[in-house]
Amino acid sequence: MSDKQLLLNEYSEWIDKVGEFAEQGESYWNRPIAEGKWTVRDVVCHIMCWDEYFYNEAIAKVSAGETLTVKHLDYDAFNEDSRLYAKTLSTEALVNQTLAAREKLIQTIEALPEALYAMRYTDGDGHPFEVEQFMRDFIWHDKHHLAQLNKVLQEG
Known about the structure:
Layout: H1 3-11, H2 13-22, H3 26-29, H4 40-64, H5 75-86, H6 91-111, H7 114-118, E1 120-122, E2 128-130, H8 131-155
Antiparallel strand pairs: 1-2
Helix pairs in contact: 1-8, 2-6, 4-5, 4-6, 4-8
């Protein structure tokens, strides 16, 4: 199996986990990951919003041969916006949107010819952007948050 496929498999683990979380009741989704911290709903929406941002500003552009518009954002403001957005969604809508966002990323990356996948791009800030490194970074990000979400699940 290629490195690309191995990364895609690992990157898609989020889909299975969100499917497991979807089977939980509202109390799980509204429980904070730690005292004074975000709720499960907030964390899931946070990842979904980053998925949509990177799809729209980087991965879809790579696929279409367009200039990347992804930039280093004010993470705190972006994350706060995603937390507020989470409050507007039902759990079902959040789950559906989360799964659709990650599936769209995976399908687009999977379909990239090797030359486009391996190319080094320039982001909207003039920094290098590589699809493989993007996946590695967000696999780490997923695992960081999955540890928190799984802990909440185990604490029941």
